[in-house]
Amino acid sequence: MAGAEAPPVSAQVEIPVETWLTSLDQKLQDSLPPSSNWRICRVPRKLQSVKKDAYSPQVISIGPFHHAADNVKPMAHHKLHYATCLLSRTPATKSTATLAACADFLRRFDATIRAYYAEKIDLNQTQLAEVLIVDSLFIIELFVRYFNVDLRLQHDPIFTSSWMILTLQRDLLLLENQIPFFVLEMLFMITVKRSAIGPSMPPLPELALLFFKSALNVDEKSSPIGGSTTWSCHHLLDLTYRSYFCPSPRLNLREESNRDLERLAAPDLVRGRGERGKKKKEKPWVLIQSAKELKTVGIKFRKVTAKHLFEMEFKDGKFRIPPLTVHDSTDSLLRNLMAYEQFSHASRQFVTSYVMLMDRLIDTKEDVQILEKAGVIENELGDSGYVSNLFNEMCKQIVFREFYYDGLCEQVNGYSKGRWQKSKAHFKSVYLKNIWTIVSLFVAAWVLAATTIQTVYSILDYNKP
């Protein structure tokens, strides 16, 4: 009809109320409720914005988060091969039954497994079970071959490549690359403990810690903290964290409030509430100077053998620190342990405190070189500047709730202040006792200079023809 106005371009088709309510109801049902059972999560974007590569797998995906990534697809063949080898150790008539038992277990615990993850998994029950079976059997076979050299196949690229084991250690300890540990334990019971090699195999936690030990900066003879690995853990990262990164409360650990402490170097780092919920006067955390500055006041750095990285000690001007081996995976390992501490409110910030202290000690490559000379840092990368940048960047976007080394820093600062004050007092008492001492020093220096000049001129005049 001429002159009729056309409907506006932006007009939208009205959705029937019943259809809209049905769609909304489905979204509500599909949403994940807030749960304290979440154990595996994505690394927060603010941490990824600093260094995303540190949280992403390089060669292998484990679990549902990265299984479709292009860069990990070449490893799919090796995962299937390892899973097949593990199943083949069961009698030929039972290998199919073993696989069926694994699948049945995963289907029955599908809801429990999904509850471990902090986001919805877009895989159906069968797809998720397949991912977990292949990934779990690969991990188990990897640990078994690492423990028993006789079970390794000739020309296995995983063990013949010099870099592969270190890269796998790195990838298997990524926060986003985890599967529930109870899944690994049950499939370990079904496949290994019922096989011919079962009686000779230690428990799964021991196999796992043996595999990771060389990447965790711990002494080969040291045992896990607490001496036991029988307690329940959530995943492989949690196992290693509890075993080697949760020291007994030996040092002075002071609680912090929930205020965001975005950067260590900020001068207004504060503590929050004190005992019984009473608000204490805000007091800044005790921090220390760099290694170079501490050295100028006479503090000496010493390497000390300890069960874990956190056993630092300061006594009689000697700062004793366990050695840290810095290799290609150190950055990723420490960042993921800190991310786990950020995610898990039940975890104390031991690793975060350690990195925080090292960040204070290391400001430039000269600080790194001082610690290298003392044996505190064993730099396998060769570049002191890289190690300096590593620690200077690692604390960015980290929220600090507590500082494990507060008491230790108080001791260091007390010693430094005392040495400086003693030096000043000694100088004043000897050279600046009173104003006449200053005048005497000045006059003596002037007389000495004048006498020297006069002597020189006398010699020159004497030698003239």
TrEMBL record:
Q: Which UniProt keywords apply?
A: Membrane, Transmembrane, Transmembrane helix
Transmembrane regions: 435-460
InterPro entries in alphabetical order: DUF247_pln (IPR004158)
Lineage: superkingdom: Eukaryota
Keyword Membrane among record annotations: yes
The record ties this protein, via Pfam families, to: DUF247
Question: PANTHER family of this UniProt entry?
Answer: BNAC04G53230D PROTEIN, DUF247 DOMAIN PROTEIN
Query: What is the protein name given in its UniProt record?
Result: Uncharacterized protein
What broad taxonomic lineage does this protein's source fall under? Answer: Eukaryota, Viridiplantae, Streptophyta, Embryophyta, Tracheophyta
